[in-house]
Amino acid sequence: MRLPQLLYGRIFMRTKAMLTSPASIPFLETSAPVLKKSPEGKRLVREFLTRPGLIGVKRGMVSFYNEATGEKYPATVLEIDQVEVVHNKTLSKDGYIAAQVGYGFKVKNQTKSLLGHYATAKVSPKEKLVEFQLREESQLLPVGTQLKADLFEIGQLVDVQGVTKGKGFAGVMKRWGFSGLPASHGVSLAHRSAGSTGQNTSPARVLPGKKMAGRMGAIHNTIKNLEVLDCSAENGYIVVKGHVSGPKGSYVKIQDAKSTLRP
Amino acid sequence: MFNPLRIVNRICVKAPLQLQRFQSGLAPAKKMVVYEPLPKLRQGKSLMLYIKEAQYKKFDPNGTKRKILDKSNPEKLRSGDVVRIVYKEQSPVVGAVIAINKSGLGTSLLLRNMITGVGVEFHVPVFSPMVERIDIVRRPAKYKGRTKHYYIRNTRLDVGDLESSIGVKRKV
Question: What is the Cα–Cα distance from B109 to B97, expressed in whole angstroms?
């Protein structure tokens, strides 16, 4: 964390015991302090990427064999097609540094303002836009740069962000793994119920955060540290080891694993 | 109104295309510039198809493994057959197929054998680069009425010591 050492505007310097008037005390001018909760202070402590990542589309899963050892892994195939840098956001104008990256090609139902946005960048209209926040403005790539699947090397770890499959309104057994009520011993019509939700007259209310039935799934989820098994810039795909959130055809963000960026 | 789909003038890749308002009687709208997309990958072929074909080409170049799993092949591998798995680096093994778990390149066989009176089962990934080939050693006189033979375990229907019955000497 790079907070300045001097948290007050002025510092009093006394070299030896002396009797001096307050007016003659020397002062040292320092820069304004950076507050922890200010946007700049938050930016200093937050983890950022060092380069933008990719947008992919989950296409399905395959078995992947390690040719040397013969081991078999479940692997997810992600398609990388027409990924280009559309816009760069800067600290002075937007308050944060980010590369806006687009995926695919889509002209139908584009608004006029978005078409203008793409035309300024001299790229074709995109299906999907996402942002990758970066630490330094020098890490931004020029607008119009095409990002290919060989951005990541085989064997490196990546984080893959997606939206999980929606399960609708789900009960507590499915949503939170509750055991439910017994099948017999007098239980009637409440076999999948949550049971008690609290105590008695004290506290006389249900505590906040109580696990109950409700909407399940369709939330953003990051699967961390997936190994890149195969990638091809020419054919536009990345194969990662293991599973990725979301159904087939859903957009995912692929970026360098944050665990590998830490010193 | 404004219709971005009507591309009036198509020039080479990355050259601006003019989109025009085509309905008559309206004032001419501001002309929007739309850039052409980048060239299609794999000549527009589906990615999963492409990857599966590439994998089969890599792990089954002759097509022999695919052939014994092919439904239309009368000589196909079936549950109840006795097979010998020939590996590239280790010695071959013999077992009776009691289940075939079909899932494309992940297809595996469940083999059962009786070694010194103890039933032994193991999965063999068919398309593993370690498996050189699969030989069908013996076929039953009559196939059973189902494809998963889990019910034969430790019954009078169980497989015997296949290696001694076939006459294969086991390496110690």
Answer: 7
Average pLDDT over residues B144-152: 94
Backbone angles phi, psi at A228, to 5 degrees: -80, 115
Q: B8 at the A interface (CB within 8 A)? A: no
Q: What pLDDT shows up at residue A31?
A: 85
Cβ distance A62 to B32 less than 8 Å, yes or no, reads: no
pLDDT higher than 90, residue A257: yes
Q: How many independent structural domains does chain B possess?
A: 1
Residues of B with Cβ-Cβ distance to A81 under 8 angstroms = 41
The pLDDT tens digits of the residues spanning A59-72 come to 999 999 999 999 99
Facing B34 at nearest CB: one of A59, A79, A107: A107
Residue A81 confidence (pLDDT) above 70: yes
Does the distance separating the beta carbons of A118 and B106 come in below 8 Å?
no
Average pLDDT over residues B15-25: 45
**Hey, how many other C-beta atoms are within 10 angstroms of the C-beta on A98?**
20
Token output for A254: 């692929």
Q: Does B52 touch chain A (CB under 8 A)?
A: yes
B36/A62 touch (CB, cutoff 8 Å), yes or no:
no
Assign residue B89 the CATH number of its domain. 2.30.30.790
Tell me the residue range of the domain where B86 lies: 64-166
Preferred mutation among A58, A59, A62 to probe B, highest tally of B CBs within 10 A: A62
Question: Is pLDDT above 70 for B29?
Answer: no
Interface test with A, best of B48, B105, B109 (most A CBs within 10 A): B48
Cis check for the bond before A203: say yes or no (omega within 30 of 0). yes
Q: Is residue A235 packed enough to be buried (19+ CB in 10 Å), middle (13-18) or exposed (0-12)?
A: middle
Asked if residue A227 lies in contact with residue A157, where contact means CB atoms within 8 angstroms, the answer is yes
pLDDT of A235 reads: 95
Pairing, β B82-87 against β B93-101: antiparallel
CATH architecture of the domain with range A54-166+216-257: Beta Barrel (2.40)
